[in-house]
Amino acid sequence: MENSNNQPKKIVYSGIQPTGIITIGNYIGAIDNWLKLQSDYNSIFGIADLHALTVRQNPAEFRARALSFFAQYLAVGIDPAKAIIYFQSHVPEHTELSWLLNCYTYVGEMTRMTQFKDKSKKNEDNINMGLLDYPVLMASDILLYQTDLVPVGIDQKQHLEITRDIATRFNNLYSPTFVVPEAYISKQGEKVYSLQDPTAKMSKSDPDPNASVAIIEDPDSIMRKFKRAVTDCEATVEIREDKPGIMNLLTIMSVMTGESMEALAERYRDGGYAKFKQAVGESVVEKFKPIREEYNRLIQDKAYLMQVAKEGADKARYLARKTVSKVKRKIGLVELK
Ligand code: TRP
Predict the structure, then answer these.
(1) Measuring from atom 12 of ligand 1, which residue has the nearest CA?
(2) Which pLDDT band, with edges at 50, 70 and 90, does 93 fall under?
(3) Which CATH number applies to 11-190+302-331: 3.90.1150.10, 3.30.450.40, 2.40.30.20, 3.40.50.620?
């Protein structure tokens, strides 16, 4: 596909692990960006279900959650007519390229990764090979599609760097094979923090259910969580770095309504926190109402979801195969014509 200046469109790839819940933090920090990128780039979104296996999953719950994530992506507005959306496990080239790239990645590079160290500490009884190899699978996701840009959170920056290292190493050993991708780190200020600890990021797998809000959460529950949001012991709504709770609520409401934080701070300044929190909650309920309704409709329509998944996998596979054949040829594997 080409854009108006006849330049081929750049390729954007992003993946999300189907674990925890999709939160309003994911929406504001990432999804909102992708929706904007959809028209200007060739976007590819993968449900990274193979990555999620590095931690033990209950099979029935895992299957339901992966499908739910897929439906949520469609409900927020990822458009299968514009973007490719698919399950990673439906495209076997991911694991195939992963093995090949493993042979160009050093053990020392993997044991040094911060996420490996963190996750090893958290799962001492299950430090499996997948956990160590996680970044190579992620590099494969990205490199398979000759990706130019990868929109990710700052926590994924190291994974992007290793992806670039692996791509460059391969290109230098043989000849240019992979596009060396750039990270597209979302702007600070669009980050959403925990409602219970406004100095920590809102996480999709926070064990405290009051800390994060799901995009498909029911309105009563959303309102309850905002009413309980941790703020500070003053009473004025204002933009100040030392009021992280209030800043977080202002950020959220500003993204929800499109109004500036300044205008909102002005309006709610002296009305008391209770009234402000109520308004923030209502803005979230309002914004996600159509998304929740669309999700509830889609999740009932399994046939449609599977059809979209199949079409996505077919399109992804077509592109992925080209890269894998190229890689195999360069390495010197015998080709079966
Ligand atoms: N590791 C990413 C995360 O935890 C998810 C992911 C898997 C990903 N494959 C990807 C992100 C490819 C970007 C590109 O957030």
Answers:
(1) 15
(2) very high
(3) 3.40.50.620
